[in-house]
Amino acid sequence: MKNFRRGTAIVAVTAMAGVALAACGSGKSSDDSSSGSGVLVGTTDKVVSIDPAGSYDNGSMTVQTQVYQYLLNFPAGSTELTPDAAESCDFDTPTTYVCTIKPGLKFANGNDLTASDVAFSFKRVVDIADPSGPSSLLGAMKSVEATDDKTVTFTLNAANDQTFPQILVTSAGPIVDEDTYPADKVLDDDAAVKANGFSGPYTISKYSKNQLAEFKVNPDYAGTYGKPKTETVTMKYYAKPENLKLDIKNKDIDVAFRSLTPTDIADLEKADGLNVVTGAGGELRYITFNLKTMPGDTKEQKQAIRQAMASSIDRAELASQVYKDTFTPAYSMVPEGQVGATEAFKDAYGDAPDKAAATKILEDAGVKTPVTIKLQYNPDHYGSSSDQEYNAVKRQLEASGLFKVDLQSTEWVTYSEEYNADAYPVFQLGWFPDFPDADNYLSPFLAPYDTEKKKNGNFTNSHYNDEATEFADPTMTKLLDDERTDGDKASREATLKQIQDRLATEVPYLPLLTGSQVAVGVDGVKGLEDTLDASFKFRFTSLSK
């Protein structure tokens, strides 16, 4: 194979596979099948869909990680792409990426897993284009086809795309059985469980959506993760973090993973018989500006208001007072620790509020003060501390004397619809990365309006780089294209710096905080340290007790 990508080619490897409904917060019951040698994991993350075409969220991804194979995957504790269902993957030409499938693979229902299933899996994500699905991740893919039973070829829109191999590990990458999954619609969860079209390290033996799911080892799995350390893992879903905290504190569950409040984590660190494990960060919290509807009479005034807000925020206070240092200040949309990350906002605006600088920015643009900011946040999707966080943001902005903040909150079901409908001029969002690369914090936010598909290139509906408006930014589009297709590490990092510097000047988004992954396990539980890594995949295969 020709070497058209960064680093070395991915080479062939050989790898080693009635619900008891306890009320949330009540711990294990006497008839709970997860009792005994299995591991019981608690979470507040909800599942949207087991079917990869219908979900793009943490709760669904956790289930999919256990039951589906991917072409490539990340071993525990590593961000090195490794063959999973693939025997090898590499660029054949600058615009064609070819994967060879391992021979003899099967789904748990007995059907063969071939290149045709792989091509089908990626095609249906794009064709279904479910609003809750991951089709946006496949924007780089022009087409995909199985050229024979063992070979699948991806044709890409841009030559030498440096990020596409990592897309295969994301929510868009699970391989489904084309004999049991429909090509034109999302398969509901109960049907997916019944179809048993899984080829990952586990299958689902019992399931009641967002209440309890039991995972059993798939003995035929042959992939990246090797043989799971535990035969049975059960996931229990909680409506409220306080009930999750109570059960892990009482040791009625073995592991608590997402999401405990910072105060709860601090309390559990003092409890006997528990271990609080912190892993690689990457979660990002930020403010989004709807460039069309935010305050300001001109494009220049809108930009000045955004810059003045950037000069008035105290991230360190948010991190320490609200999040008890489980989050740290974010001075870029690319968090610290990612290759190419800078502190562009710190360089531009400092690390503490600067009233004089903010005042001058507004005066130079002719903006009358105080500026009324209608700021919206969500109280249930990004953790229960969001109310404290955004009340602190309101207090900080108003302390400058330059802003008057109208703070409102809305539950997520309505919130996600309304921000996409231009209802919020300034609003909270968060980001959980798909793969460990700086581009995953840039392209989803900054990509231009897609004139062919007639939809926003970024998922936030901010209208930044919308070619149909005055906020188009062809310079940013060019920089994004350059960094994605640059095989030279040094020059790519230089381009990433230019992008972050430009972001700090334009401020379509205002980064606030970045957070670490946190899990709590009872004494005797092993493997949490191995799975809380920068790949952001929570793997049951690592867990044992």
TrEMBL record:
Single GO MF annotation: peptide transmembrane transporter activity
Keywords of the record: Signal, Transport
Primary residence: other
Subcellular location: Cell envelope
A GO CC annotation given for this chain: cell envelope
Highest taxon of the lineage: Bacteria
Boundaries of every Solute-binding protein family domain copy: 80-450
BP terms from Gene Ontology: peptide transport
Gene3D superfamilies (alphabetical): Dipeptide-binding Protein, Domain 3, Periplasmic binding protein-like II
Signal sequence bounds: 1-22
Sequence similarity: Belongs to the bacterial solute-binding protein 5 family.
Protein name per UniProt: Peptide ABC transporter substrate-binding protein
